Amino acid sequence: MDDRHLENIIGNLLRAGVLLAAVIVFAGGVLYLFQHHTEKASYHTFEIEGADVTTLAGIARSAAHLQSEGLIQFGLLLLIATPVARVAMAVAGFYLERDHLYVGVSLIVLAVLVFSLLRAT
């Protein structure tokens, strides 16, 4: 595997991830508007969402049942996961190229990303 081939794979991964996330968020938004178009918005109270859209398991379950809030959250999670997948793909590509320095650097970046995502919850 050469650098150009790796760049093409990573570019396609980023395009596919962002496009898929956009389609899912858009579909969830359209579904949300279709389901809630008659509701009147209340800006006087703040309501905290339940576990169905604030935990990974709840988001997956909600999206699997085609609930609009779950689809939107799932699309956003996919958007967040796209650059993480890009770094993971870079690790694999650099490993196949036998470029050990960049494998190490990419692994450090991947560890920082994963750690920050896990600590954010």
Describe the structure.
With 121 residues, the protein is an all-alpha fold. The chain has one domain (3-119). It is 76% helix and 0% strand. It has 4 helices and no strands. Helix 3 (68-96) runs antiparallel to helix 4 (100-119). The chain is elongated. The two termini are 37 Å apart. The mean pLDDT is 87.
Straight-line distance between termini: 37 Å
The average pLDDT value, as a whole number, equals 87
What does the largest sheet look like? none
Q: Percent helix among the residues?
A: over 70%
For the secondary structure, the number of strands is 0
Count of separate structural domains: 1
What structural category characterises the helix and strand content?
mainly alpha
**Could you give the order of the helices and strands?**
HHHH
Catalogue the unreliable spans. none
Query: What is the count of DSSP helices, taking H or I runs of 4+ residues?
Result: 4
What characteristic shape results from the CA principal axes?
A: elongated
- Beta-strand residue percentage: under 5%
Oligomer description:
single chain
- Radius of gyration from the alpha-carbon trace, in angstroms: 19 Å
